Amino acid sequence: MNIDYARQQMVQQQVRAWEVLDDAVLRVLAEVPRERFVPDTYRSLAFAETEIPIGHGEFMLTPVMEGRILQALGIEAEMSVLEVGTGTGFLTACLAALGADVTSLDIHGEFLSLARRNLDSVGADRVELHEMDATAELPERSFDAVAVTGSLERFDPRFVHALNPGGRLFVVVGTAPAMEARLIVRDGDSDWRSTALFETVLKPLVNGEEPPEFLF
């Protein structure tokens, strides 16, 4: 397989075709070697529009979802970004390649070790990795953008409060099969605007589901 050609085809035939038109985002997706972030067993699927298993019942986001997240957040150089759900580190690498200072959280220490190796292999710096359950705690600072890479059954305003004024949050809220991707912009201390982007289905963030209700 011609890796460079396959990566370009992924960008042009999948990502661009689904309304990801930001030139900077398309460039980064074409340049960051996604195949290095895919488990060896699934290397042949590196550029397919499918969720790739990475362990612990988790999956890599699809290329289209990655593109839509990056486009929605409007990443610019020197922005501070919080990523919730590091996985293998591919989206992390893309955020860094767009010029952001990235703080990435994952509940699985094994993923963080893997992501660090992957990020180092492509020379991605300006990235801090932390083992943390984002449904229970967040870093004690604010960011220009927040990307939540797993869905939430109910919207959690703590992610808005983690934004600087004018900051942007990408989050998927709801339960399958009716989930909605939203872009939320924080206007002030207690004001924000929410825009529905598209309908999707995304695996819940670990501990992002509400506990079941018991009827007696």
Quick structural overview:
It is built from six helices and nine strands; from the N terminus they run ααββαβαβαββαβββ.
Can you describe what's shown?
With about 220 residues, the protein is α/β, with parallel strands linked by helices. It has one domain (about 5-200): 3-Layer(aba) Sandwich (Rossmann fold), CATH 3.40.50. The model is unreliable at about 210-215 (pLDDT under 50). The chain has six helices and nine strands; from the N terminus they run ααββαβαβαββαβββ. The protein has helices spanning about 5-15, 25-30, 65-75, 90-95, 110-120, 160, and strands spanning about 50-55, 60, 80-85, 100-105, 125-130, 145-150, 165-175, 180-185, 190-200. The chain has a seven-stranded mixed beta sheet with strand order 5-4-3-6-7-8-9. Strands 1-2 form a two-stranded antiparallel ribbon. The chain is globular. The longest helix has 13 residues, at about 5-15. It starts with a helix and ends in a 16-residue tail after the last strand.
